Structure formats: C-alpha cells, structure tokens
Amino acid sequence: MKNAIQFSRRRDWASCFSSSEARSSEARMWPMDSKPLTSRHSSNRKPAASPSASALGSTIRDLRLARGKTIAELATAIGRSIGYVSQIERDQSGISIGTLQKISDALGVGINWFFQGPAAAPPGERDVVVRKGNRRILDLSAKGVIEELLSPTLTGQLELIITTFQPGSSTGRGGRLRKGEEAGLIMSGELDLCVDGKRFKLTSGDSYSLRHKGRHRFENRGSAPAVLMCVLTPPSSY
User: What is the pLDDT of residue 126?
Assistant: First the structure.
C-alpha cells in the first residue's frame, strides 16, 4: 500500500511537468546590476537597450556577443542545440519563459532585461506611477504568453507583473524557477498551478502564495485567455 501511494505521488508530479510546452513568447527589460557589459566584442557594440518585442532574438545575440560568448557556449549552458539557439537569435523559433530564464542566467542578467521599454513618463510620475500605455512588455506571443511589468522601478523589494496566457500556453515544460517568494491573483480565465507534486485548478478570483524557493508551472487548459497578476520579492528573483 505504501509503495502504491509513493508511485501515485511520483506519477502526479510527473504529470505536472510532462504536458506539451505551451506556445508563449517573450520580450525585454534592464540588467539586474548596474555594471557595464565589457568584453572583447563590446568595444564597437552597445548593449541592447530594451528593443522592440519583435527583436528578442537580436537582443539575445547582442547580449551574447557583449558577454564574449559563442553560440556553442550559450547552447551548452542552456542544454540546447546550436541550431536551436541560432533560430532563436534570428527570431525563427518561439521561446518559453523557462528557456529565456536559462539564457538570462547564462548571460548574467535577469529576465526583466528583455522587457520592452515604455515611453518616457512625466517627471512627476516617474518612479511612482505606471500608466497602462507605458507598461514594459515581455512579448512571448509565439508561445502564447504576454507579460507586462506594473512596477515603475526594480529598486524596491517588490515586482508586480500581469501575465496573459492564451489557451494551450504555459510557462514551459520545466516550469519557472522560483528564487524568492511569489503570490498572485487570477484576474480572469482558468489556470492550472503545478507545485510540489500537486496540481491546483485556479479560476477567476482565486489566489496563491509560494513562500519558498523551488519550481512551479502554470498552464492554461481552458478555451479562453487567462490573466494572472503576481508579485515577486525580491525583483531579482525573476
């Protein structure tokens, strides 16, 4: 009986991370530290500065070159093929949140480096208010995911994000690595949350809180888009 229970738990946990990887997609933001990028490649190349959503691949390429890494080195670091990395850099392949997180770690920045920069905010609102039209966007629409940054800066202890999951999309087969605390609210639609071997069905108005480091995964198995608002602390945990 004990062995049967253990097998069932392993099977439930596997099911959380084995479903097909969703069609999300991603975009950009600023580096997690203030040190300039320097390398043998950087003398004639400026680091990417919050480019448009359609240029995510070229942003990754520019950052890779600024770090002095080859495609082969980046591919090895993230556990993927050279051809796959080449396709990403040429915007010929979609990219999941999980893969972008690995690339960010390999290149020494946070995912928020890739969020698209907004228009300049009025001086009186800067660092306090984010207008809807001025949100920084991480456009992963090729994988069915769009993330919007609601925090005006990352100098505080909190980072507020809205994520829209299209039907069939997810945070990726391996889920998202959580380096700090996270809590969120389902604003509309339905999402499955997989964490610690358990799967939870969350609907509009439901909330969650994850207090420890680990890995979790969201998946939209419904027929309508799902919108999630979450807060992370510290901002560097994302």
Answer: 79
